[in-house]
Amino acid sequence: MFWRPTLSAQTVDRFNSLSFEMGPIRPPSEAFSLLVRATRNCPWNRCEFCHTYKGERFELRPVPEIEKDIATAKAISDEIQGLSRRTAQREPLRHVAAAIYSSPRFNASVRSVALWLYGGAQSVFLQDANSLVMRTPDLVAVLQRLRETFPGLARITSYARSKTAARKSHEEMRDIATAGLSRVHIGLETGHTPLLACIQKGAAAEDHIQGGRRVAAAGISLSEYVMPGLGGKRFSRGHVEDTARVLNAIGPDFIRLRSLVVRQDMPLSARLAEGEFEPLSEDEVVAEIGELLQRLECRSQVKSDHVLNLLPEVEGQLPEDKPRMIGVIHSYLAMPAERRLQYRLGRRAGYYEKLADMADPARSDAVRSLLARLGDDGEAVEGAIQSLKTRFI
Ligand code: SF4
């Protein structure tokens, strides 16, 4: 049982007098990272499948402002650690951090630092969409300040655009790596240049290859995000073939799958409404992932850590785990249509986390009763699945 604090209003107020700026998102793998906002919003902001920063203006933040935020995060961390030492039973830091994180009495900054401490205070994620767009000396200064302030950090990571990475010289990228940036997450989405143009990614396949290689050559761990389903029916073949070609040419440390879901506030939704974008069914997206895996020849770790992916167990190290991952896909696609529908609904409603959960009678009964409530109306079931999916983006 975790510690339940009885904190005076004065103590809570003291904590809440400390706050720093945070951006809206981070990669799923950075759930326990301290969030440090190095820039605001996205300097590109045109991708048609992305809603996150639409309507927001990109801004570089002055380095002293970012340094002040880092100092505030440190002050909050010191307060939480001090509180842990002062509790009557010298409550373990993790318990105190968990209690603060889960309490609505604390502001977002305090809760975020608490979550970071709960996770072991191992990593920092630099927000927002493309920290490499900063002047190299500024980025280096921020990284150095982070390393000085939190010497125990194992990892500092950030999102970046491949074109921006390609524009940095080898020397600049080495300086950034030496200063402490240890992983970059790039939104590759696809390696198919006509599709990249269509969705306004602002990069061609060659930019992806150059940018990815520039990061890797500096010794920075590289994570490439791929978006199954992005090409719809029109580009599916090219999407699979060229994405595999580009990933094989880069050889990233991680290939992260994040299946497409179209939300109303994405520019792509207008093309969907006009019938210009013909989406793949979820089963077709699964098949597309299988074809992509079949073509991959790089030594990369495949991660399916985004909640929008239907089959999260399609994860593993290439090349050795390729047969197992493709086997999961074949098992799913070989199920009768009504079992696949049951799995899709159960997964989106939170009853199933993986295919094997279908063998659990309690979970499956819950899904069957949900299906019964939706009746025999296929459209109602598909509508429910779609609305459950959009909750997560
Ligand atoms: S570069 Fe990234 S954050 Fe910016 S619009 Fe594209 S997907 Fe969104």
What's the helix and strand layout?
Layout: H1 9-16, E1 34-37, E2 39-40, E3 59-60, H2 63-86, H3 93-101, H4 108-118, E4 123-127, H5 136-149, E5 155-160, H6 162-167, H7 170-179, E6 183-189, H8 193-198, H9 205-217, E7 221-226, H10 232-250, E8 254-257, H11 268-273, H12 282-295, E9 301-303, E10 316-317, H13 322-333, H14 337-348, H15 361-374, H16 378-390
Parallel strand pairs: 1-4, 4-5, 5-6, 6-7, 7-8, 8-9
Antiparallel strand pairs: 2-3, 9-10
The structure holds iron/sulfur cluster.
Radius of gyration: 22 Å
* Unreliable sequence segments: none
Fraction of residues in helix: 40-55%
Mean of residue pLDDT values = 95
What's the CATH class label of the largest domain?
Answer: Alpha Beta
Beta-strand content bin = 5-15%
Q: What structural class do the secondary elements suggest?
A: alpha/beta
Present as ligands are: iron/sulfur cluster
CATH topology of the largest domain: TIM Barrel
Structurally, the number of domains stands at 3
Overall outline: globular
Largest sheet: 8 strands, mixed
Strand order of the largest sheet: 1-4-5-6-7-8-9-10
Give a count of the beta strands, DSSP E runs of length 2 or more: 10
How many DSSP helices?
Answer: 16
CATH architecture of the largest domain: Alpha-Beta Barrel
Topology as a string of helices (H) and strands (E):
HEEEHHHEHEHHEHHEHEHHEEHHHH
User: What's the CATH H-level superfamily name of the largest domain?
Assistant: Aldolase class I
For the record, give the distance between the C-alpha atoms at the N and C termini, rounded to a whole number: 32 Å
